[in-house]
Every structure is written in C-alpha cells, then in structure tokens.
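#random but structural
TW: two for the price of one
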Amino acid sequence: MEATTTGQFGGRLSAVLYLLCGTLLVVAVPLVPAGPEANRAGMFGLGVVALGSGAVIWFLPWYRWRRASTLVLLLPTFVLIALFNLAAGNDGFRYAPFFFITFGWLGLVHPRGTSAAAVPLAAVAYLVPLAAGDAWTANAAWSIVYVLPAGVLLGEATAWVSDRLRRTQHSLREREVSFRKLFLENPQPMWVFDIEDYRFLEVNAAAIAHYGYSREEFLAMRVIDIRPPADVPAFLDEIATVDDLHYSPMAWRHVLKDGRIIEVAVTAHRLEFKGRAAMLSAIQDVTERNGLERELRHRAFHDALTELANRSLFANRLEHALARQARDGGAIGVIVLDLDGFKTVNDSLGHSVGDQLLFAVGERLLAAVRPGDTVARLGGDEFAILLEDEPTIDQVVEHAERIVNCLSLPFELAGKTLVVTASAGVTLNRPGDGPDELTRNADMAMYLAKHDGKACVRRYEPSLHHAALDRLELEADLRRALDRDELVVHYQPTVQLRDRAIKGFEALVRWQHPRRGLLGPMEFIPLAEETGMITDIGRWVLVTACRQARVWQQRYQRDLTIAVNVSARQLRDARLVDDVRDALAESELAPQHLTLEITESVLMDNSDAAIARLHELKALGIRLAIDDFGTGYSSLNYLRALPVDIVKIDKVFIDGVASDSESRGLIRAILSMADTLDLQAVAEGVESLDQALRLEQLGSSLVQGYYYAQPLSVAAVDALMTTGGIPGPDPATPTSARESTLLR
C-alpha cells in the first residue's frame, strides 16, 4: 500500500513531531524563565518521555497498518499536553502551541472532519489540568473559546489543502502510469532523449523492433548516431528551435542497425524526464510512401516510355525560361519534331518495335543537345526541344537541321536496321509569346515541313495561318453540331475481371461531322474546352447517358452504372450541381448508379474550388472517380481529403503490367492504397490477355479497355447484352500459353 493510504506517513510525521517537541523541552526548560508554579523537573521529564516516545513511534511498522491507525496516538498526545500544562503551572501560552501542532498533524494526515471530531478530547486535555491544578478561573476557562476553534480551523484548513495535494499527486501518478503504458506499448517507434547531450533515455519496444538495436544499445547511443553524418547539422539546428510540440517539416533519414537508411516523419515534444530536460519523439517510417509519391511525381512529369520530360514538364520549363529571358535578356528557341512514317513501323513491325524506336530516338535527341537544353516527348511520335540563349532564328534552324540529320542515321532494333526521318518546325520567342504560343508556333512550322516533303526543317512565320483558318472553320461547325444532332454518345463497358460480367458503361462523345466523318474526342474536345462549348456539350452528354442507362436498367433488369466525364470548365461551372440533379430527376436514374469522372490534373490545378464542388456533388448521392490516376501529382494525404469513391488507374501504367516489374509494383501500390482508403479501383486501357491475367494476379477486380470492347453505339451495346456480354478468351489458346504470361 502507498504511504498516503497506510499509516507510514502519519506515524513517521508523528515521530518527528514528538522528537522535535521533546528536544525543544529538554533544551528550553533549563534556559527559558518559567512561572513561579512551574515544575522544571517535571517539564524536563516530559521532554525526555517525548523523545523516547518519538523513537518508539518511529520504529513501529506503520506501513502494515491503515492511515486511521495513527489516531491511537491522539490520546497519549493529549495526555502529554495535559501533563505539560500541569508542570508548566497552567501557562496556556506555553502549551497552546502543542494543541496547534496536534491539529496541524491531524490536518496533514487525516481527512477533513477529523480535527472537529477530536475537539472533545482536546477540551478535556485543556480543561482537566486547570481543575486539577487549582487554576480554574473564568479567564483561564474562557481561553478555550479561542484556542480550540483556532486549532480546529488550522486542522481543517490543512486537511483541505492536503486533500487537494493528495488528489493532484494521485492524478499525476495515474497520468504518468498511463503515459508510460502508452509509450512502451505504442506500435509506433518512440523514444526520449536528453536535449543537452542527445543520449537516449528511454525507447519503446516498437523502436527496438523497427531499428534492430537492443534497448541497451539504444541507451548507450546518442540520437545523432542513427543519422547519416550529413544530416546532423540540420538536425541540431532544428532541435534548437523546437517548441513544446513540434512536427518536423523535413523527411529525416535514419540508419537502421543493418545499415539500411529509411525516411521518417518525426513529431517531437519537450518534457522533463527523470529530472532532465528531454525530448519525446514519435517516429513514422515514410520510406515506402515517399518512394511512391516520388515515383508518381516522376511519372506525372516524365514520359513513361522514353523517360524524357512530358508535355507538362516541358511547358513548365518553358515558362521559367521565358521568365528568365524577360529578366536577363536573350532569346529562346523551340523545336518541335515529328517522325515521318512512324505509323508504318508500328503497323509492319508491331508496337513493341515502335516503342523501342521511340526510346532510341529519345536517347539520340539527348545526345544531340547541350546539357542545359530540355528534350520532351509531347505524345505519340512528336518531340520538342527547348533551347535557351539562342540569339537568332538561324542558329535555332542550324540546331534543328543537325538534329534531323542525326535522326536520319540507321537504328539497329530487334535485329533489323531501321531508317526514319523527322520533320521539324522551329520558332524564336517574340514579345508577348507564352509557352503555349511558342509550342503552337513551332508545331505549325513542323506541319509546314510535313507538307513540304518531310525530312526537313521549317521556321515559323506569321503568315502561317492555314491551321488557324482550319481551326476557325472547325469551331464554327462545332457550334452548330448540337443543334444539328451531329453528336453521338458511345459506351465502353466496365467489366468485372473475375467473370467478365458487365457492371456498367462509360459514356464517350463522338462527332459525326458531315464532311470529316466520325471524329474522336481528341479532335474536338480541346477546342470545346477552349471556347467554352464544353459546358453545353457536357450537359447534353450527361442527360443522354443518364436516360440511356435507365433504359438499359429496365430492359435488362440489372443495376448497370453509367460514368460521365466532367471537364475542368464544367467543374468550375456553378450550374453543374443543378445539371446533375436535373438529369437524375428527368431520367429517374438512382444517384448511386451515376459516376462523374474528373481527371487528377483538374483537381490539382483548381484544388480548393474543385474540392468544394466535389462535396456539393457528393451530397447528391452520386459516386465520384479520379480519372487517369497517377498522371498528375497528388499526395496521399491530399487524396484522403477528397470525397471520391473510385480511382481509375491510367493506361500508361497498364501498358507495362505484363512485362515491366516496375509498372506492376506501382499498380500493386495503387491497389493497396485504394484498399486502405476504401476506394474502388478500375484499370483502364486493357488491350491484351496478358495484361488482363497480370491484373487479375495483382488483385484488380474492375477493368476497361479495347481487349474487352471498344466504345460501342447504343445498337452495338444492345447486341452485346442480348448475346450474353463479353466473350471469354479464345478457346483455341492453350491454357498453358495463357498461364505462361504470368511467369515472365
């Protein structure tokens, strides 16, 4: 039992008071004057008795008995006080302090009310000596009126303060026990280190298990010993500025016992530990998360095939170059190249050889430019080069001609010798040109080179308006397309990988142009985005898709879902929420059967407004999907904040799933992340059985792509649904051949 609940504290305190009072009497009696009726020998003897009693009381086993057991000392205490009164000649001023000491002891040791309960015994001890010593006078008797109440007041006040202190001490002790339990049993690595010498003072089991050091090894080390030497100065600088609670903005590196280096996030808190200024640190291993985010960031700004900069990174670097040029002077050149006849290589030798050719072209371009220049793949077989500090257009043309000649040299690929040529357009920035204008001007010049016979270089001239005129004509036709019912919606199935069951469709708009034929979305949607027509087109697609989905639900008695793409301009449109609500009401489609797809880049470019609009849409009961996931850059913490239900893994990851272990690792990480965040994952762009088998092995459940079905007209969907859905693999393909793809 603790000292506060046993008699140990009260007994020891009583012994100390006895010894002090006895010493006081033994020393003071011979020295201090006494009244004529005082018995000095008796007073001295009482001092000796008090000393002896104190010694006996000290050695009694109070720790075995409850606190209340010390109340037995009240009777002998008051007896000694009464005897002292007689020996002192009933001099109240001499023995009244002993009453106050007694009541103070009661307050320190015992609960409130004990002092009041002891009043009768104290009164007897006060009055009896008066009567026995023949000193009973009105004045002496009435002195009890202020002596005892004062003693009780002292005892009760002391008891109240003592009780408060006792409760506080108990609360602190409980908190300390809880803290130690939380610290020691926490699954997150934690430790305490001395702020002065950085030595570990305590570590928990999770830290021991994660870092590989034993507790003894930890306690013999300093916290800087688990850091690479290069990180120590920055760590010491940060420690010097840490407040009471601190979350480090840096991703620190720690060294495990086996030599591996991990990245960690650290939350630190200043505290006092065993009387020393210390720091409590909670460690989170973010190595895997940071690696995934770095890989996603790299993929967001680099072409997956060639590892060159992609269009986004090229535009970003071009923007920065223009800013530097405006500040420091100079000129900026842009070259856009397109391979001549690349489609023939793909069609004759296959996409694999085509991909190898694109990779080899990227390597050759990098070798042909200066270290500070930027080479990017804009898409397909189109490349761009940013040249800084080019004083004249003639020098840019010279660079482009040298690069075109370099590309005309033979390529040795797949046991074959390939010769390709390239057409290039060049431009030099003019006042007011932005990144888009520069790239567009070089692109227009490149198309002029194509028109002039290919394998040549052309420079941009302001007179190149044929492309602009064509664009104006296309824009005028697009403005009339809705009124003329030229737009149609095709539907691509979303398939359950396990049994090839159709779970829903994605609505994809097409334009049946009266002269140009059926145009895909890439041929007119960017123009619709730029001109603002996408809002009306998107509204029409939404209503049409909801109606058709409801028709199919009723016709085939299945809860088929429909997914509709939402553009950046639509997401910014304040009418979008009402448009969705109206489309659901008009079609009688249940909200949970409608999914709106928004690309990751749209969310990042307009994050605050986009998130607010997504929450409004989510309140309608619909589902939300992030399209092309992985092609933009969003952190996992950002993704957790979005009200989304589905992530659609971009085709760029799916392309390499059958043959590239890195792509498989990324897909596995994305699927794991989606499962952790309770999101549904859809793999889009599946084009082969190998890809489908590998995705099934990785745990993907929903897929979409040309391997299962291309975007279909309404009639084609009805025919597909009537004949039983998506067919299985070709029975002529041996099972062993299908399974062998999983062993690559």
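TW: number two ↓
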Amino acid sequence: MARLGFIGASYPNLSANVNAEECINWFPEMVPGSGAAPISLLPTPGLKAFASVPNAVSVRGLFEVLSNPTVAQPGRYFAAIGSYLYEVNANGTLTQYAQPLVDDGNPVYFAAGPNGSAGGGVWQLLFCSGGTAYVLDLTAAAPTGVSVIPAADFNNSAAVSMVAYVDGFFVALLAGTNEFQLSALLNALDWTSLAAPGAAGVSVFTDNVLAMIANDRLLLLAGPKQSVWYYNSGDPNFPLVVIQGSEIEMGIVAQNSIAKAGNDVFYVGGDERGAGIVRRVTGYTPNRISDHTVELAIQNMPVFSDAIGWTEQDRGHTFYVIWFPTGNLTFAYDLASGMWHKRLFWNTQIGAYEAHLARCHMYAFGKHLVGDRQSGTIYDMHQNYLDDNGTPIRRMRRAPHINDEKQWIFYKQLQIDAEMGEATLLDANGNPRDPVGFLRWSDDGGHSWKNYHTLNFGQIGEYKTRAIQRRMGKSRDRVFEFTCSDPVSWRLVDAYLKADPGYTTGPSLKATYRKLGM
C-alpha cells in the first residue's frame, strides 16, 4: 500500500479537474521528529456557551483590559453585545452598563490606557460603536461610568470608525476622511486641548483612510491602495508623524479585516491594480499569504469588503481568521504551516455548510472566548469540545486527484489511518456503536459523486481497528472524500491505497511535502 497525499489543506481550483482539494474543520500540522507521518490533520475546536444576552443580534466586539500592577488592578474583560457594553465575569455572568450604544451591526473597536487625570495609575477604556466614541472610567462602579464623547469634539463633527492607543495618546480615526485625531496625553475624554491642529490628515496619499491599527508603539494607517506608518516624534503640537520610508504601495479593501499577531499586521488588501489578496505586513513589506484558490473564493463573492478578521493562538498555532458575512465563509490561515483551511458551521436544518459562528475573539480566564455572529452568545472555544454548542461539527477532507495520465487504475483497498478506539457511542435504540466516518469518491474529476460507504473507527479501547474500504472498481481519474461528524477528536494520520497497476506514492504527496519545505 502507498500513501496518496490524503493530508493537506484547502486548494479548490477554478476547475475541479485541476484540483478539488478541501479541508473543512481540520487543519494540517507538521509533525516534528520521526513520527508516523510528517504531517497530520488536527480537528478545529468546538464551542460551548459561556455567557449570553437573550434576543441580542450578535456579539460585535470582545476586549481585554490588561492588569495594572501599579495599583494592583486585575485584568478586566468587556463585550459589546447588541446595543450595550457588558463586563464579562469569570463565572460566565455579564454586567451591563446603562449607556446604550449606537448599533450599526459593525465591529466595535476598543483601546485602553492609563488615566493621566487620576495619576496614570487607573485604566480608562475608549471604544467606538456606530460612529460614536465612548469612554469607560474603570474606577466607576457598574452599571454607570460610560461617557459619550460629543461629536463636536472631533474635527468637523466627524464620525469615529476606529480607535487605538499609542505611546500615551488615544487615537480616533475619522470616518469618511483621511484624518485621525489625538486625545490629550493620557486622557481619553479630552479631544480639544492638544495644540492645534487636533486632527491631522495623511499627506502621503490622497485616499480616505479606511483602517488603522497600533502595533509595537507604531500606528499603521491604511487607505484602499496605500498605507503608511507613524511614530511618536515627541513634537508637543502633534507628536505622531510619518516614518520616512515606511510608505506601502498596498492598501486595505476590507477595513474590518485588519488584525495583528506579534509584530505583524494582516488584512484583505488591494492596490491600483486590483483587490482581494490577503496580506501580512512585516515591517514595511506587505507579503502575500493568500494562494490562488483563496483569492478565487474571495473575488467570486458579490461583496468581500465586509470581511471581519482577528487572530488567535491555540496549541502552538497562531491563526489569522477571516469571516466573510456576504460570502458566508470563514477562512483560517495558520502562521506555523502557511496553509489555509475552512472553518464552517454545519446547518442541520438545511444540510449545508455556512460560515463559522465566531466573529470576534479574546483570551480571558484561560479560555478562548468568541462572540456569536447571529446571537448574543459568547462561547468558550476548546479542542475538547466535540460539537458546536450541541450542533455536530461536520469535518471533511477531499484528497488530491489520483491520475496516471488517464490510464485505468483498479482500486483494491483504501485505509484511513486515524486515532482509533476513542469512544463508545450509542445508536438510536441506546445500543453501543462505533464512531463512524463516511467515504465516497468521484470518477469525473470531482463533479459528481458515488454513494457514501461507512467506515468504523472502533469503540473505546479498540485501538487496533482498521478503517478499510475494499473493491472500489476502476477509474481514470479519482478523487476521494472523507467526512465525519461523530463527537470524537478525529485526528487523522494519513491514508494508504492499494491499486493496480503498481500504484506508488503520487505527485500530490510530493507536492504537499514541497509546500512544507520537506
């Protein structure tokens, strides 16, 4: 038997005859040392309800205010759910603040920093929702403490689309302009006393600024075709100035896709030649991280400028995750492997995939908390949760083509190598049963499919179970697909094929290894 390159990422080509590979709700992980295989598939985590606001439309933002050892102030955690700000407590309860927020359905942006008027030892939280900016004094007792910043405090009474904190100053991005405005030093409530001008326009490009993000004490401002970095020069009149040589001839087309991990910034970008390429900005260099298949999916969407992005770290993997509301898809890029996979929710009512439930993320209380895109629920996301809050997670891996220059190949046996004997499940009559997966194949390049065949993966302790399908006929061009949804971990090692005449490891496996630098 030979390996057939079963383990891999999502690479569905415009033509299924070229490549029909899919990887849904699994992600590839390179195996160090001399393991059973150089790469395996690990399951994406499941969801369990942690906190919820009934009847809310969605969770629009999550944010951690870091602990402040100066005044022994512990870290605090906040959520924008529907039209209100909530404090998230360790026991899963939520404390609502009384001030209603303008709710336009878009993400809420947060920034936190010390309050200079209180001696710099107490944090204040600046956030914006629906174009209005708000400040929470973290010394005030809930449910009071949220102040609305008057629109007149901002240049031309402009709406605020994003906020940030850089080197002692709070920053507001003014929507529909190329301007950003600074607060007074260490004071999120004061936007008028900084020496004139309080707002500055980006001078290195003429487009409006769509997005900004603070990273490594610097501020990135991005238009639709160009971007530029600012730093604190110490000028008392307006301290943030352009870093010479930091201009980037690439911009952002999905303003809410901007996110950071380490010292790098990620977004769905564009320039004067086109749009829909995912970029990773390292230093002043906007590296392309999307491949042609991801770009094809993005650019085929009727709208992709509404994408929302965030980053998260799990099991040593840092992911940049992008939810496309109109496209109804969620992609995740693994910084460790450089590979993409899809994270999708299986809608059991219609029997179809749709975008994953998550739309924002924070790490709090030792948990990965994500906000629901269609309700007021905050979920705890963890690898040990084997469903999406009670809904089965349907995982799918579609393997590369097996094709020997369109010659007949006779398929004798295929074995799926996975972690066996994990659990004993119960059937509809309460009788014990194996976890099962389903194998099918296409003999026309991935356009139509044969019936599913059930494979057993062993009841608890049956570690030597072999999941094998035999006597699979012949084909000139075959694509195998494996799906599963039973509540077990579903860690896949590889797949092995016995076929005539003389099938050996195909070019697809070698291509996968090349992508990993092996």
